[in-house]
Amino acid sequence: MTEQPRSEMRWQRKDLLGIRELSAEEITFILDTADAFKEVGTREIKKVPALRGKTLVNFFVEPSTRTRTSFEIAAIRLSADVINISAATSSLTKGETLKDTAKILEANHADIIVLRHSSSGAPQFLAQRLRSSIINAGDGAHEHPTQALLDLYTIREKKGTVAGLHVAIIGDILFSRVARSNIFGLLKLGARVTLVGPSTLVPREFEKLGVTVSHNIDEVLPTADVVNLLRIQHERQRKEYFPGIGEYIRLFGLTKDRAKLLKPDCLIMHPGPINRGVEIDSDLADGAQSVILDQVTNGLAIRMAVLYLCGGIAT
Amino acid sequence: MSATIIRGGRIIDPVNKRDEIADLAIVDGRIADLSAIRNPQSEIDARNLVVSPGLIDLHVHLREPGFGWKETIESGARSAAAGGFTTIVCMPNTSPVADSPSTIAWIKDRAADKACVNVLPTGAISKGLLGEEMAPLGSLAKAGVVAFTDDGRCIQNNELMRRAVEYARMVGLPVFDHCQDYNLVGNGVVHEGYWSTLLGLPGWPRAGEEVIVMRNALLAELCDHHIHCQHISAAGSVRILREAQARGVKITGEVCPHHIALTDDAIQDFDTNFKMNPPLRTKEDVAALLEGIADGTLGILASDHAPHARFEKEVEFDAAPFGITGLETELGLFLDLLVHKTKTIGLPRLIEMFTVNPARLLQIEAGTLSPGRAADVTLIDPELEWTFDASASQSLSRNTPFDGWKLKGRAVRTIVGGETVWSL
Question: Exactly one of B57, B150, B151, B304 is catalytic; which is it?
Answer without folding.
Answer: B304
